Prior knowledge:
Elements lengths: L2 H51 L4 H17 L5 H5 L3 H18 L8 H10 L29 E4 L6 E5 L3
Antiparallel strand pairs: 1-2
Amino acid sequence: MSYQNLYEIFDSLVGILLFAVIVGSVGDMVANSNAYTSNLRNQLDGVKLYMGTRNVEQLLQKKALHYFGFMLNNRHVDDKPIKRYLPAKLKHTMQLNIHQDMLKDVDLFKGSDDKLIYELVGKLKLHLFCPGDEICKRGDHGKEMYIVKSGQLTAMAEDNHTVLFTIPEG
Length: 170
């Protein structure tokens, strides 16, 4: 057996190994994608059953179904269970890594000290809103500040038909 034959055998084994790794990775990605979708669909089935047995009005049922459609299309992952398993310092560092660029892009915080951004990241809470959701209305006492990470926010007049202004991302 020559060196060329050994090289060919080695090269073939490496090729087979790489192929197996790639196929396995694709299989894992498909399984994870299906697990997310399957979990969300199970939750949706539970909500449908609950709404049906409790005779929830059609408009609210439609909003709930719209929410699950939004979650399926945008593949939102709830970070609360993930954060529960992390130590506080690591959790805060991870949040800083995820959100600091977004905060620095907000006009109010441009040029702010890194310490302020560090403190703000610890105060952030994720809120998801679907199109058409009412976040607040005239006369409400504001206790929160919202940063639009994706989509846009439209301020409507009291008649719910007249657009007063639109707030874009950031």
